[in-house]
């Protein structure tokens, strides 16, 4: 099993600030039941200061610990201070998290972001971009790995796949949500491979066949489904059905799974969009 | 309770004292290489042949020459599957059939073979985790070279009718080879290979009170396969490498003991398992049984707890020194929850909170009583942390 720090253990065994706040000023959510973790964060705010914070979490030990420690960090902070809290600070406050569990700290930050957006509405400004991030935006949020480092892995170390990049930089090793971004960097910075030439009809047939025989059965396992609506050049329009259509991670499914598969098997240039987009 | 309550016997088991005593002399004084010519080497060689007979008895086969010793069940499975494919694959259209609920040590081999151009069919199971035999048989083609079905599932304990499947499959295509992963069956239910149509059957010692690092593979007489390890002439040149005498002796002794305790396993272990299962299900409105197959090994139950995550349950049970396991994504290190429970379409409300309890002949009534009480307390405590308060309230929590 994972090696959790004593602080993580203390927080999941004796979670602080569990529960909800009646008439909370701000409520934020992250995750989904179907994906295995969900966090609900409640804030009481007075004169721009967080007076109380409570949480409810469905998730593993580190998800509970990250939620618990986050509420402690929030109480007494101004909104300006609160929104500067990064997932790394949450993990550091717990004396670190195992690499595979860093996404738990990201979930904490996302719930906080959601709560602040709900509270401030139009006044909410995106997190201020740190100076060093401007030249190299963060791609892997779990480990705070920037674009520059990933491009170097592709150009200098010859990384050709997402797994190669992960091995070299650790990016994507935790939640894997940055997969699509890393793959597009690979596409951009490595030499393109030769794919078979298909005429438009062959291409549509091939895409349809892959969706029906490979992609749909996978989604059906998670109570979802998919239908091909249209193919315009490299734009593949699909409709997500069943559970997938309501899942908060639907966009991730489209990009990380559907698009990745079609890119791998048909054409590197394929772009998958939902019919509602 | 100060004692550890070990309810994870499908992961590994404690070495039986008799097994340990049997193997120790071969770690100390009888260390000779069984292939050597001198008298002390003969002691080792004879010990290995005795163990071969003991394993043959566990498998209920007359001819002990059908038993090969390996280092583990993963090696046994790899040897059988790759060996058959290398031996029998023609240039094109080779087809293999297996199930979606096999152990990763089997599934990964098939996925790897697919990359090399072999066609594979993965059969699903119903909501009880059972296979549709007619559907399975309908997938057999003249190009099918291998059919592999596990005897019992590690996560749910479901037993598959492997003898019947083997018999019917051979009627359709007599050239097909049948591989059965018997890891979770050995020591829990009788194995009857004599007269069956099964060609290859694998087991692992540490799942039935032998140490880790030893396994066996049954190869029905007359079957050819390409060996995986080449080198010396050991094991009839089918598995080269100096034989691991102490561990082979241990596997033999464990097989003998497994037969001795078989009735106990079917009666007492089953009674305690049922008590644990009923105790939990009747006390918690959010507890759902995942082990719903009509046929099931006597020691295993898998229960899903709705709206509570599995790793958290294990961590709280760990604090009470109760050891079980979970198919939740968070414990496996991958992002996907158990492929077995997903195959039987366990609803996502309880999928991530599914816990497997697996007993052994060492499990006591006192431990089960304590486990029931503790699981109920832990779930009630964790329900308070869940964001699904309304749903849990409706379930009485």
Describe the protein's topology.
The complex is a heterodimer of chains A (277) and B (397).
Chain A: H1 6-13, E1 26-32, E2 37-46, E3 49-58, H2 61-74, H3 79-82, H4 87-93, H5 102-120, H6 131-135, E4 138-140, E5 145-146, H7 147-155, H8 162-169, H9 179-189, H10 200-221, E6 224-232, E7 235-242, H11 243-246, H12 250-265, E8 271-274
Parallel strand pairs in A: 7-8
Antiparallel strand pairs in A: 1-2, 2-3, 4-5, 6-7
Chain B: E1 5-6, H1 17-23, H2 39-59, E2 67-70, H3 73-88, E3 95-99, H4 104-115, E4 119-123, H5 133-138, E5 144-148, H6 162-172, E6 177-181, E7 200-204, E8 215-219, H7 245-260, H8 262-283, E9 287-289, E10 300-305, H9 310-319, E11 322-323, E12 325-326, H10 329-332, H11 339-343, H12 348-351, E13 354-358, H13 365-383, H14 389-394
Parallel strand pairs in B: 1-11, 3-4, 3-5, 5-6, 6-7
Antiparallel strand pairs in B: 2-8, 7-8, 9-10, 10-13, 12-13
Helix pairs in contact in B: 1-7, 2-7, 3-4, 8-13, 9-13
What key attributes describe this structure?
heterodimer, A: 277 residues, alpha+beta, Arc Repressor Mutant, subunit A, GMP Synthetase, Chain A, domain 3, 3 domains, 12 helices, 8 strands, B: 397 residues, alpha/beta, Aspartate Aminotransferase, domain 2, Aspartate Aminotransferase, domain 1, 4-stranded antiparallel β-sheet, 14 helices, 13 strands, 40% helix
Concise synopsis of the structure shown:
Chain A has 277 residues and is of the alpha+beta class. Chain A has helices spanning 6-13, 61-74, 79-82, 87-93, 102-120, 131-135, 147-155, 162-169, 179-189, 200-221, 243-246, 250-265; strands at 26-32, 37-46, 49-58, 138-140, 145-146, 224-232, 235-242, 271-274. In chain A, α10 (200-221) crosses α12 (250-265).
